[in-house]
Inverse folding.
C-alpha cells in the first residue's frame, strides 16, 4: 500500500518535471529568431511503478530528455542547394559586371565599328579631303580605344575576382577551423551522454556558410562529421581542419592548393566555384574573342592600307599597331599607329584624288574572316553569348532560390519554433504544474489531518 | 492526432516575394523609361545580337545616304557645267554659221572670232570647275586639269589623268561618279578646245569655216553624249536614295519589333506589380502580429 509521503514526493516530482518542460518552452520562445535553431520538445516519461502485493502504483513522471527536432538528411539537401545558390549568385553577379562592358550605350565596340566603316564611306566621296581623312583616323582610334578599354576592364575585373578568390579561401579556412572545434565539443558532450544539440545547431549553421563558399560533401561518423569537397579534397576530419592555401600561377592568378595539390579546377560549387568559372573560363574566353576581333581588324586594315597609295603617293603603311602573330594581347594593346591623316592609302593608282583603294577597306565590313563571320556579326555573337550566360545563370539562380526556399520551409516546418505551439505548451505545463501543486497542497492537508488526529 | 506542421516563420518567403515584385516593378519602369525591352544583353540575348546587326545596317544605310548627298552635289555641278558647255558650243556653232556667210567683211569676221575667243575662255573656265575645292574634270588628279600650253595645237593641255572614282552607295553597289576631263573635252573627233580654236583660225583666215563648224558640231554632240553619263548617275542615285530611305524605315520597324517595349503591356505589368507589392506589404504588416500569446490571460 502506498503512503502519503510517497504521494507527496510523486507530486513534487511532477512539479519539477513540468517546470523543466516550461524551461525548454521558454528556451524555444527565446530562440524563436535564432538562425539554425532547432526547437526542442520535452519528453515526459512515466517513472517505473512499484508493485505491492497485487497492486501496482505509479511513481509519477520525469522529464526524460528534451530532444532537438531535426532532419539531418534535409539539412544535407539544404547545404547542397546552398552551394548551388552560392555558385550561381557569384556567377551571375560577376557576369552582370562583365555585361555592363557590352551595353549598347553609343560608345560600345559595335557602334564604333559601324562608325569606322561609315567614315571610310564618307572619305570615298572626297578622297583628298584632310577633314574626312581625319574623320577616319578618329573613328579608328575610337574603335581601338573602345576595344582596349573593354579588354582592360575585363582584365581588371579578373584581378578583382582573383582577390575575391583569396578572400573566400580565407573564409573557408576560418569556417573549417570553427567546424573542427565544434566537432570536438560535440564529441566531448556526447561521450558523456549529454545533450549537444546547441552545438549541432551551431555546426549546421557553419556548414551552411561553408557550403555557400565551397563545394562540400559530408561524411558522418559517430558524433563528428568529416567534410570534403565532392571530389575528395579534405576540409575537416573530426577535430582536424585542413587549411587551403593559395599560390599565384605564372599569369599572376591565385591557384588553390590543398596539402600541396592544385585543386583549383576541381572546385565547381559554392561561391568559389562561381568566381573561378568567371575568372578562369568566361573572362579568358571573352578576351580571346576580343583579341580575334582586334587582331582581325588591325591586320585587315593594315593589309588594305598597304594595297594602296597615300596622299604623298607612297605605298600605305600600317594604320593600326600590328598585333602579335598569336593575337595574344591584341585587344588590350589595340591602337592607331599613325597621326598624319595623309597616310591613309585611299588611292589605287598613286594620284591624290583616287578613292580606288577605299573599296578594300569597305570590303572588310563584309569579310567573313572573324571565325567565319563578319566583324559586326562576330561582335553580335559575342553579345549573344554574354547575354545568354547572364540570362540562363539568372534563371537557374531563381530556380535554385525557389528550391532552397522550399527546403528551408520544410526545415522550418520540422524544426522551427512556432509561438502558437509554445503558447499552448506553456499553458499546458502551467496547468499541470498548478494541478501538481494542488496535489501537494491536498496531501499536505491530509498529512495535517493525520498529524492532528491524536491531539483533538 | 497529428496535424501537418507548417513553417512558423514565413517572413523569408514574404521577403523574397517582395524582392521579386520590386524587381518586376523596376524592370517595367526601366522599359517604360527607355521604350525598349532590351536594356542589357541578358534581357534577350538573341534580340541583343540582332540589334547589333540591325544598328550596323542602319549606320551603313545612313553613311550611304550621306555619300549620296555629297556625290549628288558633285554630279549636279558637273551636269550643270556641261549644260553651260553645251550652250556655249551652240553659240559657237551659230557664230561659225554666221561667219561662214560670204557677205561678211573681214572686220566683221574678226569680231566674230573675237567673240569666239571669249567663248573659248568661258569653256576653259567651265572645264576647270571645282566642287568643294576639288576639280571635277581632272580624273583622279587634284591639279587644275586644263591649262594654257604653247606646245598644244589647241593652246590648251590636259594636266589631269584618265582615272575614275566609284563610290559605294549600297552593299555591293558602287557607282562611278566622274568621267575624266580628257574624255569629255579632248576626245578624238570631239575635241572642244581644238575645234573652237580651229574655228577661230578659220574665221581669221576665211578658209575652211564650214569644216571647222562641222568639227564644233562634232564636239557639241560628244559633250552632249557625255552629259548623259551624269544625268544617268543622278537618276541612279535618286533611285538608290529612295531605296535606302525605305530600307531605313524597314530597319527601324525591325528594331522596334525586336526590342520595342509593348507600352500597354508593360504599363499593365507595372500596375500589377504595384498591386502585388501593396498586398505583400499588407501581408507582412499583418503576419506575426498575432499569436496564441495574445489570447492567453
Amino acid at each position: 500500500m502506498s503512503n502519503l509521503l510517497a504521494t507527496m514526493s510523486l507530486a513534487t516530482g511532477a512539479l519539477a518535471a513540468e517546470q523543466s518542460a516550461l524551461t525548454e518552452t521558454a528556451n524555444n520562445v527565446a530562440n524563436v529568431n535564432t538562425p539554425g535553431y532547432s526547437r526542442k520538445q520535452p519528453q515526459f516519461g512515466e517513472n517505473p511503478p512499484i508493485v505491492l502485493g497485487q497492486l501496482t502504483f505509479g511513481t509519477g513522471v520525469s522529464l526524460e530528455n528534451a530532444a532537438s527536432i531535426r532532419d539531418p538528411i534535409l539539412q544535407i539537401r539544404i547545404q547542397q542547394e546552398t552551394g548551388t545558390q552560392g555558385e550561381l549568385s557569384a556567377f551571375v553577379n560577376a557576369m552582370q559586371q562583365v555585361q555592363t562592358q557590352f551595353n549598347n550605350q553609343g560608345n560600345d565596340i559595335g557602334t564604333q565599328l559601324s562608325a569606322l566603316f561609315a567614315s571610310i564611306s564618307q572619305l570615298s566621296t572626297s578622297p583628298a579631303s584632310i577633314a574626312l581623312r581625319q574623320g577616319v583616323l578618329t573613328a579608328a582610334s575610337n574603335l581601338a580605344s573602345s576595344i582596349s578599354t573593354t579588354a582592360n576592364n575585363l582584365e581588371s575585373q579578373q584581378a578583382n575576382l582573383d582577390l575575391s578568390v583569396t578572400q573566400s579561401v580565407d573564409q573557408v579556412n576560418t569556417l573549417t577551423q570553427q567546424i573542427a572545434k565544434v566537432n570536438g565539443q560535440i564529441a566531448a558532450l556526447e561521450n558523456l551522454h549529454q545533450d549537444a544539440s546547441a552545438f549541432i545547431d551551431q555546426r549546421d549553421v557553419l556548414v551552411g556558410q561553408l557550403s555557400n563558399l565551397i563545394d562540400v560533401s559530408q561524411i558522418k561518423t559517430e558524433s563528428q562529421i568529416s567534410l570534403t569537397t565532392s571530389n575528395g579534397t579534405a576540409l575537416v576530419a573530426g577535430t582536424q581542419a585542413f587549411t587551403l592555401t593559395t599560390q599565384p600561377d605564372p599569369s599572376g592568378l591565385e591557384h588553390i592548393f590543398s596539402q600541396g595539390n592544385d585543386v583549383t579546377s576541381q572546385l565547381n560549387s559554392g561561391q568559389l566555384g562561381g568566381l573561378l568559372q568567371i575568372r578562369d573560363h568566361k573572362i579568358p574566353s571573352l578576351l580571346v574573342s576580343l583579341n580575334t576581333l582586334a587582331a582581325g581588324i588591325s591586320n585587315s586594315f593594315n593589309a588594305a592600307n598597304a594595297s594602296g597609295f597615300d596622299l604623298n603617293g607612297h605605298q600605305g603603311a600600317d594604320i593600326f599597331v600590328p598585333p602579335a602573330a598569336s593575337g595574344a594581347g591584341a585587344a588590350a594593346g589595340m591602337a592607331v599607329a599613325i597621326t598624319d591623316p595623309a597616310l591613309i592609302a585611299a588611292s589605287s593608282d598613286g594620284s591624290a584624288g583616287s578613292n580606288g583603294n577605299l573599296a578594300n577597306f569597305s570590303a572588310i565590313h563584309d569579310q567573313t574572316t572573324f571565325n567565319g563571320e563578319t566583324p559586326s556579326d562576330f561582335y553580335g555573337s559575342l553579345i549573344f553569348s554574354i547575354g545568354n550566360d547572364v540570362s540562363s545563370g539568372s534563371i537557374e539562380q531563381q530556380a535554385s532560390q525557389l528550391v532552397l526556399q522550399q527546403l528551408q520551409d520544410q526545415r522550418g516546418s520540422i524544426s522551427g519554433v512556432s509561438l502558437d505551439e509554445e503558447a499552448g505548451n506553456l499553458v499546458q505545463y502551467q496547468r499541470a504544474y498548478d494541478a501538481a501543486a494542488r496535489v501537494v497542497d491536498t496531501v499536505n492537508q491530509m498529512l495535517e489531518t493525520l498529524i492532528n488526529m491524536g491531539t483533538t | 492526432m497529428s496535424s501537418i506542421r507548417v513553417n512558423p516563420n514565413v517572413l523569408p518567403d514574404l521577403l523574397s516575394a517582395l524582392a521579386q515584385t520590386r524587381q518586376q516593378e523596376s524592370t517595367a519602369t526601366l522599359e517604360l523609361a527607355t521604350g525598349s525591352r532590351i536594356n542589357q544583353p541578358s534581357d534577350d540575348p538573341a534580340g541583343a545580337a540582332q540589334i547589333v546587326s540591325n544598328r550596323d545596317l542602319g549606320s551603313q544605310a545612313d553613311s550611304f545616304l550621306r555619300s549620296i548627298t555629297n556625290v549628288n552635289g558633285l554630279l549636279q555641278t558637273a551636269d550643270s557645267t556641261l549644260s553651260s558647255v553645251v550652250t556655249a558650243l551652240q553659240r559657237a556653232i551659230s557664230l561659225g554659221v554666221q561667219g561662214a556667210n560670204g557677205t561678211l567683211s573681214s572686220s566683221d569676221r574678226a569680231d566674230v572670232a573675237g567673240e569666239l575667243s571669249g567663248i573659248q575662255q568661258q569653256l576653259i573656265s567651265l572645264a576647270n570647275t571645282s566642287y568643294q575645292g576639288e576639280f571635277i574634270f581632272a580624273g583622279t588628279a587634284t591639279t587644275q586639269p586644263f591649262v594654257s600650253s604653247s606646245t598644244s595645237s589647241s593652246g590648251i593641255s590636259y594636266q589631269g589623268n584618265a582615272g575614275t572614282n566609284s563610290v559605294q552607295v549600297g552593299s555591293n553597289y558602287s557607282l562611278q561618279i566622274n568621267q575624266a576631263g580628257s574624255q569629255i573635252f579632248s576626245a578624238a573627233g570631239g575635241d572642244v578646245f581644238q575645234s573652237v580654236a580651229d574655228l577661230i583660225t578659220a574665221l581669221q583666215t576665211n578658209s575652211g569655216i564650214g569644216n571647222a563648224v562641222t568639227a564644233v558640231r562634232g564636239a557639241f554632240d560628244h559633250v552632249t553624249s557625255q552629259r548623259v553619263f551624269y544625268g544617268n548617275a543622278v537618276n541612279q542615285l535618286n533611285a538608290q536614295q529612295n531605296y535606302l530611305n525605305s530600307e531605313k524605315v524597314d530597319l527601324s520597324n525591325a528594331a522596334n519589333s525586336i526590342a520595342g517595349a509593348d507600352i500597354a503591356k508593360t504599363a499593365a505589368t507595372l500596375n500589377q506589380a504595384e498591386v502585388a507589392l501593396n498586398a505583400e506589404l499588407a501581408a507582412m504588416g499583418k503576419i506575426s502580429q498575432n499569436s496564441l500569446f495574445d489570447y492567453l490571460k
